[in-house]
Amino acid sequence: MATYWDPFQEMDRLFGSLALNTRNAPAMPMDLFREGDHYVLAVDLPGIDPGSVDVSCEDRTLTIRAERTPRSAEGQWLLRERPSGTVARQLTLGRGLALDRISASYADGVLTLTIPVSEEAKPRRIEVSHAAGSPTAIEAGGS
């Protein structure tokens, strides 16, 4: 009985198992939703020192930067999956937002940014005026 042997199959299996062990999720998972006349951005930052969180906005680019200090262990590490060091994420914001009125709060490992919609971008109703006393074509052409 002949067996098929692929020399690259073992390498694919090995690299596949290594890829599963790496973190495929972003370092800062976030949710973004609109609530009325503002957007809410919730960013998960567990274990982050609140004093290390830095949020800045320059030329429509919102940058969130934070640092997780590594935990020192007296003994030997058996498993270490929690990343440490500086994490950063940038978002390009669209037009129609009041960038000068962004507010931020950090509680229970979640950074919450509230980004208001600018007054110019809010939908508004436009009244249509009509002249009540102007003659119509039939009235003007009558006897």
Automatic annotation (TrEMBL):
Coiled coil: none
CDD domains assigned: ACD_sHsps-like
A Pfam cross-reference name: HSP20
InterPro entries recorded: A-crystallin/Hsp20_dom, HSP20-like_chaperone, Small_HSP
PROSITE patterns noted in UniProt: SHSP
SHSP domain mapped to chain residues: 21-131
Domain of life from the UniProt record: Bacteria
Stated family: Belongs to the small heat shock protein (HSP20) family.
Protein name: Hsp20/alpha crystallin family protein
